[in-house]
Structure formats: structure tokens, C-alpha cells
Fold this protein.
Amino acid sequence: MVNHASLAITDADVAAYRRDGAVCLRGVVPDLWVERLAAAAEEVFAHPNAFSRGGRFFSGRFMWRDHPQFRAFVFESPMARIAQRLMGSRSVTFIYDHLFNKEPGTPDPSPWHNDLPYWPVDGEQICSIWVPFDYVTPDSGVVQYVRGSHRWGKKFKPVSAGGDSREFSGSGFEPVPDIEASPGQFELITWELRPGDCLVHHALTVHGARGNATSDRRRRALATRWGGDDAVYDPRPGTMSLPEDPRIQPGVPLASKLFPLVIPATSGEAQNG
């Protein structure tokens, strides 16, 4: 059962998400969920799955499939309702979860990118919700967004952290612009975050994050990815690997064992803002 406590989202929040491609929601993630996720994350760091990359900059995917706390977060937390409200969708399908950690003194940045080219999905109603477990500031690697970039109509060539693009070599998209070298050309938006806050961004919004320059503060966060009514399967070359074949045809809505339908359209609770 999806928790309905999330809907303290205002029309202004919806407008900001649709205009800017990203919005910060304050205090919408209950403390209990943050505590449960932080504890579960430590288990994953100690025993990563096959879709994880360890080290001081940790990245792991698909925890929900074999870890009860991450699975409960998908189906019981307010996240699906948040996605529904901001995307203006009747249905909400879960795509996957992505766990991050940057230990203190980790220089590795998260390169500028937009998410959709990495994923075997397509559609306008696709978003990410980024939930921190720690106080996050610019010096510890807060996410930065290029305002309005989701409306450029562009998908940029995926690049893995560290600049390695071999996994995504089949994409054929153009490289992302050099955001750092053109500070006056792009308007950046960002927020400092405390546990309980979250960031929500459109799957085409260009974003990135610097390394963690602090000496005493970790930067742990969970991103969950969500699809709405128009999200479909798009297994084009150069997208990320999946734990199994979803057994759906290209161009078909995502709902499947791999991409579970969390809020059905028949719920009658469309959130059109």
C-alpha cells in the first residue's frame, strides 16, 4: 500500500518541476524511512550485489529485488505519490533504484549528464527522486541542475563516472556541453539538503555533482526512478544492463515483473497539478 502522506506538494512545486526540470521538496521523507534506508545501505556497502561498483565512490543498482527494506521503500513510502503528482500521471511504474555514497575526501565527480539515454525506457513522464541520508552541501557533492534543460529536446551521450563510456558506446548521441567551461551560458540551480528532503528531476534534465571535499561527512543517497502513463520500453543499443529480460516488446508500457506497477491508472487518483 502506497503511503499517501506525501501530498503536501503545492501547485508551485509542480510548476517548478515542469518549468525548471527539478524541484526540492522539504521534509517529505519521514525520518523512519531515512533511518531504515541508511541502515540498509550499510548492509549493501558491505555486501554489494552484481550491479554495484565499490570503493570510496560507491554506486549500486537494483537493491529492491533482494533487500526487503529497499523493496518496502518502493511500495510503501510516499515516493510513488510524489512522482505521480509531479509528473501529472494516473499510473506510476517503478523503474529501478540507485544507491550512491561518496566518502569524505572522494574527489570523483558525477559527470554532467541527463538520465534517459542510460535507460532502456522512453517517454515524457519519467523522473528521479533523490533522497539523501546525510546533510548535503556544495562541498560534499550536492546535485546541480541546468535549469530548463529538460526542454532542450536532447539526449546526450552517456558517460560513466570517471569518464569511461565503453558501456554506453552504442548510444550515438552527441556529447553533453561543457557546463563548467561556460558558466554564463547555463543557469544552474541547486539546494543544500537535510535528511527528510528530496530532489525530483525530469529524466532529461542535465545534472551533475562534484566530489566530496569534506573531511568528516559522507554523502549517501538513494535515487529511485519512476515512469508515468507514457513511459515505454526502449531497449536501444548502449543502455544499462538489466538483471533480467522484462519480456515486453519495444514501445509497450513498462509494467512487468522487472518494472512493477505501483499505482495503477484505475486508482482514479490522477495528479494533474
Remarks:
- Residues 11-259 form a domain with the Jelly Rolls fold (CATH 2.60.120.620).
- The longest helix spans residues 31-46.
- Residues 26 and 36 are 19 Å apart (CA to CA).
